[in-house]
């Protein structure tokens, strides 16, 4: 199977063809937004970090911005710096340029302020967009697709049907040689031993357990023992019996194949198949990490409905709650409610969902794209300085 | 579609998520004594409910001896703390977690 995508100089393939404007620091975000304003095909990352982060947090910002800059859904990039920030705009532009992608750099303190920077940036952007318009889609093997998986605004229908349907689609994509990213480590707690048992090696299994231990210690340090409070009385009233069951309902969206690799936040997987990314459960931080890690499409299950979307990758919303689909249809793309009504099998719905993922990868717009959802938030471990 | 036969056909009353599961989840409140038609490991079967099953709760597809795993999503979600009959409500009164949070 194939999707229609854009071939990039580094060999990767995009599902979209944006010119991406990246402020390397919050101080240049205003100029960056002005540069992108009004141009069809240009998107600006609403980045507010880039200065004041230290150690691992600085690395998280750098890796995320480089991940977006080198992402195959971007044809070219305009980096907008202020000039004195910790995260060097020159280094960022150079790092992105290593992917063979065209990068333009404008820096406020070098050009003499916002007005000149915006004019220079818009001129560069106009030229890049003219070249982007010449790109054409071509058939790309489905094995080159990286699908991010996520759930948010969950209800009883999520674990029961929407996540299993996405799991069936994930298994089909892995069967085609593709890559599926599962993330949100706090939601693994209680089923980590079952998930680790699916790892391809003891070393990979160890990484899963270590990631869970790190988050669990942080939660306990903040005063909450996740194992002691889950399943909640509400979960139990709704039919959830054990913590394993609750967590499995979440992780089932990545299907049943063996775990190939564990990658840190915003890192690019080096293996195909099922990959685990260690991220928070925060919807936007998780989404940002998976897109920075190269996900060209994200499949997002919801029970109650959520509008969120990424500046760079289409986010396809799935619900199995028929009432939510009717009420929140403006924000939802895929109706799996027939599974809960007993009129469609999980596998049949998964196959139909994979078809929709391929259509979106090939250019079909999602509701989040229609609404211009540009959600972006980089995970940070500590306070900024 | 696959060898495990995940999914189900016929009947809007209960869902078997994975072919390896020994429990189904009720898609409606099901009264004691009702008969549920659903696909169990590739065969269309009728399970007679020996207890009332609230919406979203589980019932056993087979007799589950005490100490055996309760399987949902194709994975063990806990252990039967007492023998569970086919068609019986499966919940905190007869299942123990292997995790410390829900082990009491």
Question: Could you please describe the fold and organization of this structure?
Answer:
The complex is a heterodimer of chains A (385) and B (104). In chain A, α6 crosses α11 (243-251). Chain A has two domains: 18-132, Rossmann fold (3-Layer(aba) Sandwich); 141-370. The longest helix of chain A is centred in the middle third of the chain and has 20 residues, at 156-175. Chain A is of the alpha/beta class and 385 residues long. Chain A has a seven-stranded parallel β-sheet with strand order 10-11-9-8-12-13-14, with helices on both faces. Chain A has a four-stranded parallel β-sheet with strand order 4-3-5-6, sandwiched between helices. In chain A, β1 (2-7) and β2 (13-14) form a beta hairpin. Helices cover 41% and strands 17% of the residues of chain A. Chain A has helices spanning 29-36, 55-69, 89-97, 108-111, 114-132, 156-175, 192-196, 202-221, 226-229, 233-237, 243-251, 283-292, 322-327, 337-340, 346-361, 367-370; strands at 2-7, 13-14, 18-23, 42-44, 74-81, 102-107, 138-141, 146-151, 179-182, 259-263, 273-277, 297-301, 315-319, 334-335. Chain A is globular, with a radius of gyration of 21 Å. Chain B is an all-beta fold. Chain B has one domain (14-102): Archaeosine Trna-guanine Transglycosylase, Chain: A, domain 4 (Roll). Chain B contains no helices and nine strands. In chain B, the strands form three sheets. In chain B, strands 1-2-5-8 form a four-stranded antiparallel β-sheet, with no helix packed on it. In chain B, a hairpin with a 2-residue loop joins β3 (35-40) and β4. Chain B is globular, with a radius of gyration of 13 Å. Chain A binds chain B through residues 156, 160-161, 164, 168, 171, 190-191, 193-194, 225-231, 236, 238-239, 241-245, 248-249, 252, 256, 339-343, 345-348, 351, and chain B through 1-2, 6-15, 17-18, 25-27, 54-58, 70, 72-78, 90-92, 95-102.
């Amino acid at each position: 199977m194939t999707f229609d995508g854009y071939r990039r100089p580094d060999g990767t393939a995009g599902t979209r063809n944006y010119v991406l404007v990246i402020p390397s620091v919050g101080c240049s975000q205003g100029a960056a937004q002005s540069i992108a304003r009004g141009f069809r095909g240009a998107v600006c990352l609403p980045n507010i970090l880039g200065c004041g982060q230290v150690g691992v947090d600085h690395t998280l910002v750098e890796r995320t911005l480089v991940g977006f800059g080198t992402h195959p859904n971007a044809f070219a990039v305009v980096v907008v710096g202020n000039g004195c920030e910790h995260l060097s705009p020159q280094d960022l532009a150079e790092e992105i340029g290593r992917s063979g992608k065209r990068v333009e750099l404008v820096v406020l303190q070098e050009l003499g302020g916002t007005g000149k920077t915006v004019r220079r940036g818009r001129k560069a952007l106009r030229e890049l967009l003219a070249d982007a318009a010449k790109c054409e889609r071509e058939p790309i093997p489905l094995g080159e697709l990286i699908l991010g998986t996520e759930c948010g605004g969950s209800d009883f229908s999520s674990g029961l049907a929407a996540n299993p349907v996405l799991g069936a689609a994930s298994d089909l994509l892995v069967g085609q040689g593709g890559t599926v990213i599962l993330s949100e480590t706090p939601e693994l707690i209680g089923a980590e031993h079952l998930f680790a048992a699916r790892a391809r090696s003891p070393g990979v299994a160890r990484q899963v357990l270590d990631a869970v231990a790190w988050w669990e210690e942080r939660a306990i340090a903040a005063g909450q023992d996740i194992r002691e409070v889950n399943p909640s009385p509400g979960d139990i009233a709704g039919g959830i019996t054990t913590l394993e069951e609750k967590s499995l309902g979440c992780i089932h969206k990545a299907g049943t194949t063996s775990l190939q690799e564990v990658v840190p936040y915003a890192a690019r997987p080096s293996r195909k198949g099922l990959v685990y990314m260690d991220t928070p459960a925060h919807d936007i931080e998780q989404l940002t990490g998976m897109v920075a890690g190269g996900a060209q499409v994200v499949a997002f299950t919801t029970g109650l409905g959520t509008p969120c979307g990424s500046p760079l990758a289409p986010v396809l919303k799935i619900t199995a709650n028929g009432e939510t689909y009717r009420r929140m249809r403006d924000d939802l793309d895929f109706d799996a409610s027939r599974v809960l009504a007993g009129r469609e099998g999980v596998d049949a719905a998964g196959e139909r969902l994979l078809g929709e993922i391929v259509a979106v990868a090939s250019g079909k717009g999602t509701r989040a794209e229609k609404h211009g959802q540009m959600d972006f938030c980089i995970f940070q471990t500590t306070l900024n300085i | 579609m696959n060898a495990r036969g995940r999914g189900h056909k016929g009947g809007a009353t209960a869902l078997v998520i994975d072919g390896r599961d020994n429990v189904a989840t009720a898609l409606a409140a099901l009264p004691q004594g009702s008969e549920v038609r659903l696909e169990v490991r590739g065969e269309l079967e009728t399970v007679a409910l020996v207890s009332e099953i609230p919406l979203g709760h589980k019932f056993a597809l087979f007799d589950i001896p005490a100490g055996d795993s309760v399987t949902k999503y194709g994975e063990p979600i806990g252990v039967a703390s007492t023998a569970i009959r086919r068609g019986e409500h499966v919940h905190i009164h007869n299942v123990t977690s292997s995790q410390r949070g829900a082990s009491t």
